[in-house]
Design a protein that fits this description.
Order of helices and strands: EEEHHEEHEE
Distance between the termini: 25 Å
Helix content: 25-40%
Radius of gyration: 19 Å
Strand order of the largest sheet: 3-4-5-7-6
Largest sheet: 5 strands, antiparallel
């Protein structure tokens, strides 16, 4: 909004779009990378609360951390090379994207409580409003969007 006072334009509020908070980190896959990614995501969530005044409970924060853990673990186990964690957030959603060097798209197995392991993508789908996986020129990108409840 802009008010005009004596011929001068005076800004009185936010009248331009605000960019989402975006952060990215590169991991080599060495021991400790998954923990580093979780720390990076925790810092991002704290920053989103501060800079965007995003209202989220501890459960939502835990959900973001779990999605980061699952996607980074998959990249660590199934690619031969480094991977990138990209986070984007506003006061309405958080997007977690992981890029890795493997072009093999992840498989979501049917629910089976007797199966040991391979539940990662099932968990991500349960927590996220949207999950996509696509091949890119250097491998693939797996992306999960988690929506913040209106509050």
């Amino acid at each position: 909004m802009i008010k005009h006072l004596g011929g001068a334009a005076i800004p009185t509020g936010f009248d331009v779009p605000v960019e989402p908070l975006r952060r990215a980190a590169h991991y080599t896959g060495e021991a400790g990378s998954i923990a580093e990614a979780r720390d990076f995501a925790a810092h991002f969530v704290d920053q989103l609360r501060t800079e965007w005044c995003a209202r989220m409970d501890d459960r939502f924060s835990d959900d973001v951390m779990l999605v980061v853990s699952e996607l980074i673990t998959n990249a660590d186990r199934h690619s031969n090379g480094p991977y990138i964690l990209e986070l984007e957030g506003t006061d309405t959603s958080v997007t977690v994207a992981v890029y890795d060097s493997s072009d093999a798209l992840p498989l979501r197995f049917p629910k089976d409580p007797r199966r040991i392991g391979r539940h990662g993508l099932e968990i991500v789908h349960a927590l996220a409003a949207e999950v996509t996986a696509e091949r890119i020129p250097v491998g693939k990108r797996v992306r999960a969007v988690l929506g913040l409840a209106a509050g």
